């Protein structure tokens, strides 16, 4: 696996608000403050998660138009951070700046001069953070030998996910003719910010598959799906793009979704990925840590628990939802159907608090007992309900996508609305005002990053499924069929290119 090369910083809205209050002074002068941070290490990206502000004592910093600080302040903050296994970030303000900020000579000299000291005390690189007067953040990372690398973004996780992009590393995607109606809904600036988000959909079934296609069509550049499972006949009534041929070719849900994403994408250079991993595996979790937003489209307790944790420990908003259909016991008619959606993030209740996740079920799932017919029989448990209806499956998809747009775009400045539930029988949309719980285990893990309690392990069901798929794909019948499918697809693409050439740039 490639070592992390990209860097980012993130903080909950509470830390952002406190730092803006400290650093953006009424007198317009620059100010400075140190913050502890926890590293969060993904497969290709490392993030610095801001944890706790360490305010300067009166003698440790001076404000004189610019701001200066003492080595004692750095030593004190670094020592506090080291006791908790954390690093430190040096945050200062540019009150008259806007957007991503470049460092002045004095700012660069100050950060460089303390890079080695911070690393020697904490064992972590020093992060430099700059707050512009319009609330935009910028960041860079200093190695022990005082070499700096700019971050690609700084994320503030609140009811509105606010991301400041480093345009040099993550340039604004070029608007396309195919996006005219999308862009007219919120303007080029919003489209440019939205399109740069890295979004992962975990679970490529009916809901996850639809969400991924809609995001690619909206113009997002970086969209990925993760699912280890195969397409089966039971998927056909809820995934209109899946066919009997896909099943005969033993195509995974991920490969099928990736194929559809490439057809739907409107970005000029889409960066689309499919991962045949389980989020319950270490590699699957590390891949997830590379993304800015995650959609939870899984129905098993263990993967939901992993995603529930990452929303808090690693400051990656997770948009969760699903549908429940209640048929009459005699199988004749439907009593009701409900679908829910909510954003998991610091300041919102977790899945356990909203009773969408039972920790006891997580343990059973980890042990494989929820798939064991003998255990289910002896424990007199009911097998999990799997009802779904194609005509209704689009509803939880729409609900989760609306949560995403509220989180990323904040229509009317309001941000995501909290947990929602729609009751089909009465056509009633209701808010579920479950308050955050200060005693919640997951809330208390906010910003832990790599120090989180690991819920991942060997996922035997995923390993068995992938192994069976590889065996099937090596059979002569499937190999010949897949070769024919590749030739047909290539011919279709060439025909489309000849009949519908790309418009001139």
How would you portray this structure in words?
The protein has 505 residues and is an alpha/beta fold. It folds into 2 domains: 6-165, Cytidine Deaminase, domain 2 (3-Layer(aba) Sandwich), CATH 3.40.140; 195-466, NAD(P)-binding Rossmann-like Domain (Rossmann fold). The chain contains 14 helices and 19 strands. It has helices at residues 13-23, 71-83, 105-122, 180-195, 206-218, 244-248, 253-264, 282-288, 301-313, 359-366, 373-378, 390-409, 460-473, 476-499, and strands at 6-12, 32-41, 45-54, 61-64, 66-69, 87-94, 126-132, 137-142, 148-150, 153-157, 162-165, 198-202, 222-226, 271-275, 293-296, 318-327, 334-344, 420-423, 428-431. Residues 178-360 form the THIF-type NAD/FAD binding fold domain.
Give the SSE map:
Layout: E1 6-12, H1 13-23, E2 32-41, E3 45-54, E4 61-64, E5 66-69, H2 71-83, E6 87-94, H3 105-122, E7 126-132, E8 137-142, E9 148-150, E10 153-157, E11 162-165, H4 180-195, E12 198-202, H5 206-218, E13 222-226, H6 244-248, H7 253-264, E14 271-275, H8 282-288, E15 293-296, H9 301-313, E16 318-327, E17 334-344, H10 359-366, H11 373-378, H12 390-409, E18 420-423, E19 428-431, H13 460-473, H14 476-499
Helix pairs in contact: 2-3, 5-7, 5-12, 9-10
Q: Can you tell me the CATH architecture of the largest domain?
A: 3-Layer(aba) Sandwich
Poorly predicted parts:
none
Strand order, sheet with most strands: 9-8-7-6-2-3-1-10-11
Helix/strand/pairing category: alpha/beta
Rounded mean pLDDT score: 90
Q: Structurally, how many domains make up the residues?
A: 2
Distance from N terminus to C terminus (CA atoms, Å) equals 37 Å
Residue share in helix: 25-40%
The counted number of beta strands is 19
Shape: globular
* Main beta sheet: 9 strands, mixed
CATH superfamily of the largest domain: NAD(P)-binding Rossmann-like Domain
The whole-angstrom Rg is: 25 Å
> In what range is the share of β-strand residues?
15-25%
CATH domain class name of the largest domain: Alpha Beta
Number of DSSP helices? 14
CATH fold-level label of the largest domain: Rossmann fold
Protein name: THIF-type NAD/FAD binding fold domain-containing protein
Domain THIF-type NAD/FAD binding fold: 178-360
